Protein backbone atom coordinates (compact mmCIF):
# COMPACT_ATOMS: atom_id res chain seq x y z
CA UNK A 1 0.00 0.00 0.00
CA UNK A 2 1.45 3.37 -1.07
CA UNK A 3 1.76 6.38 1.22
CA UNK A 4 -1.26 8.08 -0.35
CA UNK A 5 -3.55 5.10 0.29
CA UNK A 6 -2.11 4.66 3.78
CA UNK A 7 -2.78 8.30 4.55
CA UNK A 8 -6.39 8.12 3.32
CA UNK A 9 -6.89 4.86 5.26
CA UNK A 10 -5.56 6.41 8.48
CA UNK A 11 -7.77 9.48 8.14
CA UNK A 12 -10.83 7.31 7.42
CA UNK A 13 -10.16 5.25 10.56
CA UNK A 14 -9.73 8.41 12.63
CA UNK A 15 -13.00 9.86 11.29
CA UNK A 16 -14.86 6.64 12.13
CA UNK A 17 -13.53 6.88 15.69
CA UNK A 18 -14.35 10.60 15.94
CA UNK A 19 -17.90 9.92 14.71
CA UNK A 20 -18.64 7.61 17.66
CA UNK A 21 -18.77 10.64 19.97
CA UNK A 22 -22.45 11.35 19.42
CA UNK A 23 -23.44 7.72 20.05
CA UNK A 24 -21.57 7.30 23.34
CA UNK A 25 -22.61 10.74 24.61
CA UNK A 26 -26.23 9.69 24.04
CA UNK A 27 -25.73 6.30 25.69
CA UNK A 28 -23.80 7.33 28.81
CA UNK A 29 -26.21 8.12 31.64
CA UNK A 30 -24.39 11.17 33.04
CA UNK A 31 -24.59 14.94 32.57
CA UNK A 32 -22.59 16.74 29.90
CA UNK A 33 -19.98 18.15 32.30
CA UNK A 34 -19.22 14.74 33.81
CA UNK A 35 -18.82 13.18 30.36
CA UNK A 36 -16.65 16.05 29.10
CA UNK A 37 -14.40 15.90 32.15
CA UNK A 38 -14.07 12.11 32.12
CA UNK A 39 -13.34 11.99 28.40
CA UNK A 40 -10.78 14.81 28.60
CA UNK A 41 -9.04 13.35 31.65
CA UNK A 42 -8.56 9.96 29.99
CA UNK A 43 -7.45 11.57 26.69
CA UNK A 44 -5.02 13.82 28.57
CA UNK A 45 -3.43 10.74 30.18
CA UNK A 46 -3.12 9.10 26.75
CA UNK A 47 -1.22 12.12 25.43
CA UNK A 48 1.04 12.65 28.47
CA UNK A 49 3.99 10.74 26.94
CA UNK A 50 3.77 12.83 23.76
CA UNK A 51 3.79 16.30 25.37
CA UNK A 52 7.00 18.26 24.77
CA UNK A 53 7.09 19.90 28.18
CA UNK A 54 10.40 21.72 27.64
CA UNK A 55 9.10 23.42 24.48
CA UNK A 56 5.86 24.69 25.97
CA UNK A 57 5.37 28.46 25.75
CA UNK A 58 2.04 30.01 26.74
CA UNK A 59 1.16 32.81 24.30
CA UNK A 60 -1.99 34.87 23.77
CA UNK A 61 -2.80 32.80 20.67
CA UNK A 62 -2.46 29.56 22.59
CA UNK A 63 -4.61 30.83 25.46
CA UNK A 64 -7.29 31.78 22.90
CA UNK A 65 -6.99 28.28 21.42
CA UNK A 66 -7.41 26.67 24.86
CA UNK A 67 -10.50 28.75 25.69
CA UNK A 68 -12.04 28.00 22.30
CA UNK A 69 -11.30 24.30 22.66
CA UNK A 70 -12.80 24.18 26.16
CA UNK A 71 -16.01 25.83 24.96
CA UNK A 72 -16.12 23.57 21.89
CA UNK A 73 -15.81 20.33 23.86
CA UNK A 74 -18.22 21.28 26.64
CA UNK A 75 -20.83 22.64 24.27
CA UNK A 76 -20.60 19.71 21.84
CA UNK A 77 -21.37 17.22 24.60
CA UNK A 78 -24.08 19.49 26.04
CA UNK A 79 -25.83 20.08 22.70
CA UNK A 80 -25.58 16.39 21.75
CA UNK A 81 -27.46 15.68 24.98
CA UNK A 82 -30.21 18.28 24.51
CA UNK A 83 -30.73 18.28 20.73
CA UNK A 84 -30.30 15.70 17.97
CA UNK A 85 -26.81 14.41 17.24
CA UNK A 86 -27.29 15.45 13.61
CA UNK A 87 -28.00 19.07 14.52
CA UNK A 88 -25.20 19.20 17.10
CA UNK A 89 -22.51 18.00 14.69
CA UNK A 90 -23.63 19.81 11.54
CA UNK A 91 -24.15 23.20 13.21
CA UNK A 92 -20.65 22.83 14.62
CA UNK A 93 -19.48 22.29 11.04
CA UNK A 94 -20.67 25.78 10.04
CA UNK A 95 -17.19 27.02 11.00
CA UNK A 96 -16.27 27.98 7.37
CA UNK A 97 -19.06 30.58 7.39
CA UNK A 98 -17.85 32.25 10.60
CA UNK A 99 -14.21 32.18 9.51
CA UNK A 100 -15.19 33.82 6.23
CA UNK A 101 -17.14 36.56 8.03
CA UNK A 102 -14.14 37.13 10.31
CA UNK A 103 -11.80 37.55 7.33
CA UNK A 104 -14.28 39.94 5.66
CA UNK A 105 -14.29 42.09 8.81
CA UNK A 106 -10.49 42.10 8.61
CA UNK A 107 -10.73 43.48 5.06
CA UNK A 108 -10.76 40.39 2.86
CA UNK A 109 -12.29 40.97 -0.58
CA UNK A 110 -15.58 39.13 -1.22
CA UNK A 111 -15.47 36.74 -4.20
CA UNK A 112 -18.28 34.60 -5.65
CA UNK A 113 -16.00 31.54 -5.44
CA UNK A 114 -15.88 31.89 -1.65
CA UNK A 115 -19.30 33.44 -1.09
CA UNK A 116 -21.50 30.82 -2.81
CA UNK A 117 -20.56 27.88 -0.53
CA UNK A 118 -21.16 30.05 2.54
CA UNK A 119 -24.62 30.98 1.25
CA UNK A 120 -25.47 27.28 1.14
CA UNK A 121 -24.29 26.94 4.74
CA UNK A 122 -26.42 29.92 5.76
CA UNK A 123 -29.51 28.48 4.03
CA UNK A 124 -28.94 25.19 5.85
CA UNK A 125 -28.71 26.99 9.19
CA UNK A 126 -31.98 28.81 8.51
CA UNK A 127 -33.68 25.50 7.61
CA UNK A 128 -32.57 23.81 10.85
CA UNK A 129 -33.46 26.78 13.05
CA UNK A 130 -36.84 27.11 11.32
CA UNK A 131 -37.55 23.47 12.08
CA UNK A 132 -36.71 24.02 15.76
CA UNK A 133 -39.04 27.00 16.33
CA UNK A 134 -41.45 25.91 19.04
CA UNK A 135 -39.19 22.91 19.73
CA UNK A 136 -35.55 22.67 20.76
CA UNK A 137 -34.48 26.11 19.58
CA UNK A 138 -32.14 26.66 22.56
CA UNK A 139 -30.19 23.46 21.89
CA UNK A 140 -29.76 24.32 18.22
CA UNK A 141 -28.74 27.91 18.97
CA UNK A 142 -26.11 26.64 21.41
CA UNK A 143 -24.90 24.20 18.74
CA UNK A 144 -24.63 27.13 16.35
CA UNK A 145 -22.37 29.00 18.79
CA UNK A 146 -20.20 25.91 18.72
CA UNK A 147 -19.67 26.55 15.02
CA UNK A 148 -18.10 29.87 16.00
CA UNK A 149 -15.95 28.13 18.64
CA UNK A 150 -14.86 25.55 16.05
CA UNK A 151 -13.91 28.36 13.68
CA UNK A 152 -11.77 29.92 16.43
CA UNK A 153 -10.09 26.56 17.13
CA UNK A 154 -9.28 26.19 13.42
CA UNK A 155 -7.96 29.76 13.23
CA UNK A 156 -5.70 29.49 16.27
CA UNK A 157 -4.53 25.96 15.39
CA UNK A 158 -2.96 27.45 12.26
CA UNK A 159 -0.65 29.59 14.38
CA UNK A 160 2.94 28.45 14.83
CA UNK A 161 3.63 26.98 18.25
CA UNK A 162 7.03 25.75 19.45
CA UNK A 163 5.54 22.39 20.43
CA UNK A 164 3.94 19.61 18.35
CA UNK A 165 0.27 19.10 17.47
CA UNK A 166 0.13 16.08 19.78
CA UNK A 167 1.39 18.32 22.60
CA UNK A 168 -1.35 20.83 21.77
CA UNK A 169 -4.09 18.20 21.95
CA UNK A 170 -2.74 16.75 25.19
CA UNK A 171 -2.40 20.14 26.86
CA UNK A 172 -5.82 21.24 25.63
CA UNK A 173 -7.46 18.29 27.35
CA UNK A 174 -5.50 18.85 30.56
CA UNK A 175 -6.52 22.53 30.57
CA UNK A 176 -10.11 21.50 29.84
CA UNK A 177 -10.13 19.31 32.97
CA UNK A 178 -8.68 22.19 35.00
CA UNK A 179 -11.32 24.64 33.73
CA UNK A 180 -14.16 22.26 34.63
CA UNK A 181 -12.68 21.59 38.07
CA UNK A 182 -12.35 25.32 38.82
CA UNK A 183 -15.63 26.57 37.33
CA UNK A 184 -17.99 23.58 37.24
CA UNK A 185 -16.83 21.10 39.88
CA UNK A 186 -20.28 21.17 41.47
CA UNK A 187 -21.77 19.74 38.28
CA UNK A 188 -19.51 16.68 38.26
CA UNK A 189 -21.21 13.51 39.42
CA UNK A 190 -19.59 10.10 38.91
CA UNK A 191 -21.40 8.50 41.86
CA UNK A 192 -24.24 6.90 39.90
CA UNK A 193 -22.26 6.05 36.78
CA UNK A 194 -22.82 2.40 35.83
CA UNK A 195 -20.13 -0.01 34.65
CA UNK A 196 -21.40 0.52 31.10
CA UNK A 197 -21.05 4.28 31.65
CA UNK A 198 -17.44 3.92 32.81
CA UNK A 199 -16.66 1.74 29.81
CA UNK A 200 -18.27 4.36 27.57
CA UNK A 201 -16.10 7.11 29.10
CA UNK A 202 -13.04 4.91 28.66
CA UNK A 203 -13.90 4.41 24.99
CA UNK A 204 -14.41 8.14 24.45
CA UNK A 205 -11.10 9.06 26.07
CA UNK A 206 -8.94 6.28 24.64
CA UNK A 207 -10.41 5.77 21.18
CA UNK A 208 -12.73 8.67 20.25
CA UNK A 209 -10.17 11.32 21.30
CA UNK A 210 -6.80 9.75 22.08
CA UNK A 211 -6.22 7.10 19.42
CA UNK A 212 -8.22 8.95 16.76
CA UNK A 213 -5.99 12.05 16.97
CA UNK A 214 -2.81 9.96 16.90
CA UNK A 215 -4.00 8.12 13.78
CA UNK A 216 -5.21 11.36 12.19
CA UNK A 217 -1.86 13.10 12.70
CA UNK A 218 -0.14 10.08 11.17
CA UNK A 219 -2.47 10.15 8.17
CA UNK A 220 -2.21 13.86 7.34
CA UNK A 221 1.56 13.52 7.03
CA UNK A 222 1.02 11.20 4.06
CA UNK A 223 -1.66 13.05 2.07
CA UNK A 224 -2.51 16.62 1.09
CA UNK A 225 -4.53 18.89 3.35
CA UNK A 226 -7.30 18.95 0.70
CA UNK A 227 -7.68 15.16 0.67
CA UNK A 228 -7.62 15.05 4.46
CA UNK A 229 -10.35 17.71 4.62
CA UNK A 230 -12.50 15.84 2.09
CA UNK A 231 -12.22 12.56 3.99
CA UNK A 232 -12.95 14.42 7.24
CA UNK A 233 -16.51 15.00 6.02
CA UNK A 234 -17.13 11.37 7.00
CA UNK A 235 -17.41 12.40 10.66
CA UNK A 236 -20.56 14.57 10.41
CA UNK A 237 -22.13 11.95 8.13
CA UNK A 238 -21.39 8.90 10.27
CA UNK A 239 -22.15 10.56 13.63
CA UNK A 240 -25.97 10.80 13.21
CA UNK A 241 -26.08 7.49 11.31
CA UNK A 242 -24.55 5.66 14.28
CA UNK A 243 -26.94 7.41 16.68
CA UNK A 244 -29.90 6.43 14.49
CA UNK A 245 -28.71 2.81 14.20
CA UNK A 246 -28.16 2.25 17.93
CA UNK A 247 -30.40 4.82 19.62
CA UNK A 248 -33.14 5.29 17.04
CA UNK A 249 -32.94 9.09 17.02
CA UNK A 250 -34.43 10.56 13.84
CA UNK A 251 -34.09 14.30 13.06
CA UNK A 252 -37.05 16.13 11.50
CA UNK A 253 -37.33 16.30 7.73
CA UNK A 254 -36.47 20.02 7.75
CA UNK A 255 -33.41 19.34 9.88
CA UNK A 256 -32.27 16.65 7.45
CA UNK A 257 -32.68 19.06 4.54
CA UNK A 258 -30.65 21.69 6.42
CA UNK A 259 -28.05 19.04 7.29
CA UNK A 260 -27.62 18.16 3.62
CA UNK A 261 -27.41 21.79 2.49
CA UNK A 262 -24.77 22.66 5.11
CA UNK A 263 -22.76 19.55 4.25
CA UNK A 264 -22.89 20.48 0.56
CA UNK A 265 -21.75 24.03 1.38
CA UNK A 266 -18.84 22.73 3.46
CA UNK A 267 -17.93 20.37 0.61
CA UNK A 268 -17.86 23.30 -1.82
CA UNK A 269 -15.51 25.25 0.46
CA UNK A 270 -13.00 22.42 0.12
CA UNK A 271 -13.08 22.15 -3.68
CA UNK A 272 -10.30 23.74 -5.73
CA UNK A 273 -11.31 26.94 -7.55
CA UNK A 274 -11.51 25.31 -11.00
CA UNK A 275 -13.80 22.55 -9.75
CA UNK A 276 -16.21 25.07 -8.23
CA UNK A 277 -16.21 27.17 -11.41
CA UNK A 278 -17.06 24.08 -13.48
CA UNK A 279 -19.83 23.10 -11.06
CA UNK A 280 -21.33 26.60 -11.23
CA UNK A 281 -21.21 26.56 -15.05
CA UNK A 282 -22.88 23.13 -15.13
CA UNK A 283 -25.59 24.33 -12.71
CA UNK A 284 -26.27 27.46 -14.79
CA UNK A 285 -26.46 25.46 -18.04
UniProtKB/TrEMBL annotation:
Superkingdom, natural source: Bacteria
Chain ranges of the EamA domain: 6-129, 138-270
GO cellular component, one term: membrane
Segments passing through the bilayer: 7-25, 31-50, 62-79, 85-103, 115-131, 137-156, 168-186, 198-216, 228-247, 253-271
Residues in coiled coil: none
Pfam families in the cross-refs: EamA (PF00892)
Keyword entries, A-Z: Membrane, Transmembrane, Transmembrane helix
Family: Belongs to the EamA transporter family.
Protein name, entry field: Transporter
Organism from which the protein derives: Acetobacterium bakii
Amino acid sequence: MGNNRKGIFFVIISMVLFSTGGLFIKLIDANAYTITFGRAMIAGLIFLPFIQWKKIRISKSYLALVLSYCYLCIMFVLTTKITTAANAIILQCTAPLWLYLFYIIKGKKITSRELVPRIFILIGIIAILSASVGGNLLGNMLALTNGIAYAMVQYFMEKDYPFSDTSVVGLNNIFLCAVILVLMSGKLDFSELSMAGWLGLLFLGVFQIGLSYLIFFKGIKLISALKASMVSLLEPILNPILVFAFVGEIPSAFSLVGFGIILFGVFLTLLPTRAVDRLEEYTID
